Amino acid sequence: MATSGLGIGVASDRLNELLELVARDNPFQRNRLAALDLGAAPALADLPPLTKLELVHDQERNPPFGTNLTYPLERYTQMHQTSGTTGPPLRVLDTADDWTWWRERFAHTLSVAGVGPGDKVTLAYSFGPHIQFWAAKEGLEEVGAMAVALGGMGSSQRLQTIDELGATAIWCTPTYALRLLEVAVEQRLESALDSVDRILCTGEPGASLPAVRARIEEGFGARCFDHAGLTEAGPFGYPCSEGHGLHVDESEFVCEIVDEELRPTPQNERGELVITPLRRTGFPVLRYRTGDVVVNTEERCPADHPDRWLPGGIVGRTDDMVVIRGMNVYPSAIEEAVRHASGSGEFRITFYSEPSGMDEIKLEVELGDGKAARELQEMMRKQLGLRVRVVPVTPGVLPRPDGKARRVVDERPAKWSGS
Ligand SMILES: [Zn+2]
After folding, report:
1. Per-residue pLDDT for 205 more than 90?
2. What are the C-alpha distances in Å from 47 to residues 37, 174, 287?
3. What is the rounded average pLDDT of the residues 19-31?
4. Dist. CA 224 → ligand 1 center (Å)
5. Which of 111, 181, 201, 249 has the fewest CB atoms inside 10 Å of its own CB, making it the most exposed?
6. C-alpha 383 to ligand 1 mean position (Å)
């Protein structure tokens, strides 16, 4: 377990209080602890990491909210749900106190990014059941900035609104930031973005990929900030005010990085982030498997901030990872290479099997010429050790995502898996 930015004493007091509370008052956690037979005072490390699927199954057995509730239902004031893109959606409840915690954590992220009174922050998405949208609005109110919803608008209308209002920041996915930039250039509306000095990114790894971040920062002439969170586990990652990447909010979360066998990940290797929010008690998750892949490093951020630093942010999702010819392949690593190639546009990755049974990767990418395709192919071979068939396509032909990108197609036949 990582040491906490809070000091081990305070964090462990909070943790012990949380464990006692849930063992006493939360039926889901109580049953789980009883089944594990860990004795009267289990330590966090005694608990097996919790998956989203366990919570989903509990909710299916006990509709509509499941049993992971520490308080009577009337104490809860907010309901959100996970997107369900990687399985059935999960409903997550918050009490008024827990919701205040979300508000404060988002305000913290915004303060670190330098957003405050006088800022006009445009939210370039439609508000859905995912917690992120609503917590963002709360956080903006907390820091005294103006929240401007741009849901239900097309990109040119958004650009026009940003221009007319003199918006100072845009909150969106990194994919959409690049899309908006493309529309601004196509429609010669680049000057609409002059007032914008901050891009707040979320929802995808992109904002911490150096080449994606560089494109956003150069294109907008603005700083790009990343942050990360999950409806079911809280906003655990905030940007570094001085550098790139993410900090894990260790005053609020116990953070661990584990390998596929759930053992601590060695230094400088990739592993899954497992977190325990210490103060969200209404819907507690202990040792929650985020599915977010990060690199375990002791590297300090440029400002030597105490919280653990993830220089590369979230580098992928465990469920995005594909094993090709025995190698772990993350689509985000391919994206990083594509964004490095000059003049590259939208792209699509297809995993497929040759008749011989050999798995292959096809990368369709909008490129100016065949020479760029050969260079990209060579770059991926050298940097990622991957053999990728690069297919240049005409700029503008691939679909333009308006939010989170869906750029991966897996055409391989389902295989028996021993796990
Ligand atoms: Zn820092």
Report:
1. no
2. 10, 35, 7
3. 94
4. 14
5. 111
6. 27
- Cα–ligand 1 centroid distance for 238 (angstroms): 9
Ligand 1 centroid – CA 243 distance (Å):
6
Distance 386 CA to ligand 1 centre (A): 33
For residue 400, the model assigns a pLDDT of 82
Q: How high is the pLDDT of residue 180?
A: 95
Q: What's the confidence (pLDDT) of residue 1?
A: 40
Contact between residue 45 and residue 38 where contact means Cβ atoms under 8 Å apart: no
Would you place residue 34 in the very low, low, confident or very high pLDDT band (cuts 50, 70, 90)? confident
340 Cα–ligand 1 center, Å: 25
Q: How far is the CA of 154 from the centre of ligand 1 (A)?
A: 35
Residue 188 backbone zone (phi > 0: left; psi -120 to 50: alpha; other: beta) = left
Torsion sign across C-alpha atoms 240, 260, 287, 102: positive
Quickly tell me which residue has 């008749």 as its tokens.
355
Strands 309-310 and 76-81: unpaired
For ligand 1, a single-atom ion, the residues with CB < 5 A are 240, 301, 303, 305
Is pLDDT at 278 greater than 60 in this prediction? Answer: yes
Q: If you ran DSSP here, which 8-state letter would residue 264 be given?
A: B
The answer to whether residues 277 and 236 touch, using CB atoms and an 8 Å cutoff, is: yes
DSSP string spanning 63-86? TTT-S--SS-GGGEEEEEE---TT
Handedness of CA 163, 164, 168, 173 (dihedral sign): negative
